Amino acid sequence: MTGAIRRNGPDRDRVLPWLAVVGLIVYILVAVYDWRLPSHDGTSFGPVWAALSALSVATVRILRGRWEPVVVLAAMTAVAALLTDLVQLNGQFLRDLGIYVRAGEHFAAAVPVYLAAALTEAPVDMTTYPFLYPPPTLPFAAILAALPRPFVDAGWLVGSGLAAVWGLRLVGLSTRWALAALLWPPIFQGLYVGNVAVPAFVLFAAAPWFGAGLILAALLKPYSAIAGLWLVHQRRWGQLGLGLALIAALALVTLPLVGVDLWRRWIDGLRWYAVSQPAVPALLALSLGAYLPGWLQLAAAVGAIGWSWLGRGLDGLARFGVATVVGSPSLFAHGFVVALPAFLALRPVGLWLAIGITSVAPGLGWWLSIVLVVVASVVGGLRRQTGGPWPGAYGTV
Fold first, then answer.
1. Where would I find the beta strands (DSSP E) of the chain?
2. Cα separation of 32 and 28, whole Å?
3. What is the pLDDT of residues 150-164, one digit of tens each?
4. Widest CA span of the chain, in angstroms?
5. Reduced 3-state DSSP string for 158-202
6. Which pLDDT does position 309 carry in this prediction?
């Protein structure tokens, strides 16, 4: 009996990674069945991905001299990510940055900035999407609007890329892998559209050293306050107080510029945005609200926070990143960036499976990566025994 157990253990360890390979192949082919390259009237995505993946895997086989499921997963994921990035290039370049600049122009011209009525359809020009950020951000948006646009575009793109690499280095990636991670679709999309989520990732990544950044991030993405609960969980009251004090100071400093009425208009704008979401599903994007009734999404968010509360130390921080994704009322691909530390806590096969899932066809399928992380937290053998995110920070928690 003992001998049989010993033989079955290694057999299982060899079989399961290959099952992950098969599972990723099936998932990708199903997820991209109606995708075209490089546009809607182009070549079918699936066959191109399959052919290039086979070529990549064969090349790896020649160079390494053997088959390894982790390497096969990595090769297939890399091809999928690059092809998805190619599809992304059909989108409106720096559209989110355009929203910020347009809001700065309106603020400077004393024109209404925030949504004042419900939307009935998605705007064709994505730079006209609602501006959702609180009033203290408006003076900075006005500065952007006053600068030459080519300078703003280049500066934002370069600055966001550098901030992303810095954040990726903080969570433990080498410089080489951090640069490669810029091609991961959630990061690539964030850079391409100019969303603040990518440079703001550094605030989440730096939390073990500068916990107040979790509170500051809520000024950019209010639902990021979910991650700020980690400070309460860890009883890091000083960092919590510092973050709140910095936000209060910024609100007071900018109050003479924005006034009190803009705060009321901002709250009204958020309410109109929530009212608009059922009629304009594009505003929900990948959030659970696009697939579940509102009460069930709220229950999932509360459950995710409870699950995060069970994590210890930095594992808890990674979990709160996942809870932020679950609790996001409006979620686009770049919103998954804060789940990356939780992915990095998985063993290599699980890590590449999660990255592979989030490398094609954004949609309901991406939630499988979140399910994988949650399952790994209760099933032994799916998480790393050593290493993981924030390797240089364990002495600070």
1. 36-37, 43-44
2. 6
3. 999 999 999 999 999
4. 80
5. HHHHHHHHHHHHHCCCCHHHHHHHCCCHHHHHHHHHCCCHHHHHH
6. 97
Do residues 145 and 106 make contact, with C-beta atoms less than 8 angstroms apart?
Answer: no
245 and 272 Cβ atoms separated by less than 8 Å:
no
Q: Domain residues of the chain, as ranges?
A: 1-90, 91-396
Residue 397 pLDDT: 58
CA 308 to mean position of chain CA atoms: 17
Q: With 50 as the cut, is the pLDDT of residue 100 above it?
A: yes
Q: Write the CA distances from 191 to 101, 179, 186, 323, 369, integer angstroms.
A: 16, 13, 9, 23, 22
Residue labelled with tokens 């025994």: 385
The pTM assigned to this predicted structure is 0.93
For residues 108 and 83, the answer to whether their CB atoms sit within 8 Å is: no
346 SS3 class: strand
Q: Nearest-CA neighbor of 92 among 60, 129, 55? A: 129
Structure tokens at 180: 């490669």
Given a contact cutoff of 8 angstroms between Cβ atoms, the answer to whether 222 and 271 are in contact is: no
**Residue 285 φ/ψ, nearest 5 degrees:** 55, -120
Name the more confident of 102 and 224. Answer: 102
Cα gap 140→191, rounded to integer Å? 19
Q: What is the mean pLDDT of residues 363-376?
A: 95
What is the C-alpha separation between 323 and 233, in angstroms, rounded? 14
Q: How far is CA 156 from CA 85, 101, 120, 152, 153, in A?
A: 19, 11, 31, 6, 5
Peptide bond before 329: cis, by omega within 30 degrees of 0?
Answer: no
**pLDDT digit string (tens) for 125-155?**
999 999 999 999 999 999 999 999 999 999 9
Name the more confident of 62 and 56.
56
Amino acid, res. 226: I
Please check whether residue 180 is in contact with residue 355, taking contact to mean a CB–CB distance below 8 angstroms. Answer: no
- Could you count the other beta carbons within 10 Å of the beta carbon of residue 13? 11
